[in-house]
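User: Purine-cytosine permease family protein. Structure?
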Amino acid sequence: MSTSPSVSGPAPGGTAAGRAPAEVAPTLDGPVPKTLGFLDQGAFWANLGVSLLGFAGVLAVLEPAGAPPLTVTAAIVATVVGTVIGSAMVGLSAMPGAATGAPAMVLLRGLFGGVLSWIPSVLNVVQLIGWGTFELVVIAQAGTLALGGPTWAWVLGAGVVTTVLTLRPLGMLRLLRRVVTVLVAISVAYLSWWLFTRPELDLAATGGSWAGFWAGTDAAIAVAVSWIPVASDFSRHSRRVSTAFTSATVGYGVTQILCFVVGLAALALVGGNGDEVFAPMLAAPLGLVALLVLTARETDQSFANVYSTAVSVQNLAPRADRRVLCLAIGTVITVLALGVTIDDYAVFLAVIGSVFVPLLGVGVGDALVRRGTPPDLSRWAPSRPMMVVAWVVGLVVYQLINPGGAPVWSDAWTLLREAIGFAPPSWLSASLSSFVVAVLAAAVLARLEQRRRRSPR
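Assistant: Predicted structure:
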């Protein structure tokens, strides 16, 4: 992937006086600070890997949508395999931003063209609003359980804090490195020790089988790859490309695995009831303190979602003020969080994976063919419909293998699968299959695109 793109908008590096700005410019026309080192980014990704949603959301791995429930052992293996694959994908997606200084959706101008990049941008806005909403829901769930009070008050409070943090994003990342990460590490280590030393913990008592292993793996991958379309929004401020990859892959991967395994232990103690996942943690002598630390820290998840939603919107409207957008988006997710529940989470994940795993595959396949060719990241870059075709092919493969459990959407894919007589074997991973197919389709179509451009008319 080239480090010298043709860009209309974001300017890598410092200011006119040669001094790097301390914060992100309000519009895409401003300079791009290159101030983040390994510790800054590693702390950021490590904190994203530890999520209250992960403690409860690991139920999507243990009981994957459209597949038989797993044993706890199978769920742990699926968590490790899925997280390693997914975090590596996130690391790959962070590299172009560090190389070019461009945010994630602007990078897609080089892949799809200026106008066609609006399609993934809109989808990304939708998924990020969904993630931000669920984050506020789980913050409210944990806060209500820990200290009581009305759920709506917790939602409103978390929404306000989230929105304020987005106004100074690089300052937020520095705060994570200096203070928050240490407190989070202590809290997670303490809760892990408490849960796994309970005499009543019986990880083998939940039943299940290995039949839905790859569906569970896909769920773990889906949690990680949801960060693919936002990774470059933060890695664009990295000093080095290699640092962007390593910090995302290692920082996120290690903590998501730890978070999911802790969640599995908590679920085993409450008989698999996701609504009670925090109860065993609160039973610890210092459980309330640890949970409050994690609840307060959860706002970094909602912060990342709201901030990247605003940056994605800027691909459509480059001169829009990010701060105004963040205020509007923060308000939207707060209102939505007042009306949804955590029960909708697993269905949401199945749809996310089918969209963004093949999107990364298309980017990899195109980069293999066009390596050394600077991407055109200008707002009106020529459209490349062939890459959209490759993306759709990857999405179709994912859905045919794992249609998930979303009403209407999943039913339609299941009917199509039955109509063509396709019965995927249990060992087939929807994420890996769609990624590989998208890479191959993009490589073939990019080569065809090159030949058409070279042929005389």
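Residues 339 and 407 are 18 Å apart (CA to CA). Confidence is low (pLDDT under 50) at residues 1-12, 14-18.
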